Amino acid sequence: MDTSTLFSLEGRTALVTGGSRGIGKMIASGFIAQGAKVYISSRKADVCDAVADELGPNCVSLPQDVSTVAGCQMLADAYFQHEKSLDILVNNAGAAWGEAFETFPESGWDKVMDLNVKSLFFLTQALHGPLKAAASREQPGKVINIASIDGIRINPWETYSYQASKAAVIQLTKRMATRLIKDSINVTGIAPGAFASEMNKAARDFGDAVGNGVPSGRIGRDEDMAAVAIYLAARSGDYVVGETIAVDGGVVYGSAAETISP
Fold first, then answer.
1. Given 160, 162, 231, 253, which residue is catalytic?
2. Domain boundaries in the chain?
3. pTM score, two decimals?
4. 13-247 is a CATH 3.40.50.720 domain
5. Confidence band for 260, pLDDT divided at 50, 70 and 90
């Protein structure tokens, strides 16, 4: 058994949406450290360009708003200007919206569902050709969808469209996996818990306090997220199909629900 290259990404290409900050940047950094050439995309061109410069010569900025189907196609076209095949796609771009049930707006529903669910599907569709071109039974292509533990359990906040969208991502991952495995493309997911990011400002600004509520006693570190993404993207994850892995320090599966005594 040769385990020396299980986690290597040498010679692989990857595209990470939402790759200029938070979880996307953690994943992009990890991929680059393992030898991949990584294209990052985000809506703000100046930020995307600056982060690509920060991450080094193996990182290329492809700024694009992927909240529409047209935007997804434009990103695919931009990628195709650089590469003819794609080994790894990470669908990480996402949005959240919190508001009381009585006033929750249609705009908050549509913004979140469009970016978190619809765009994930249509960007994968737009990049199906390059993914299929790189894939083989010996080295499957990889699509990694970023869900959330809020798609598995109920959080205490009124984030209706966000929770619905992340549950949909987990189910969509399974559905896409059953189709794309026929093209030697493995579709999997990651459900993060508390990681410091713009979307999770509580973990970013009050990490110690949030960590006290996590069974592992802390919030997630950059390496925690990079590690599971590398595992799924590299040869180590070649036999994982349709699964979404919770990376949350035990919030979902490491703590028991309180019972109510009669």
1. 162
2. 13-247
3. 0.95
4. yes
5. low
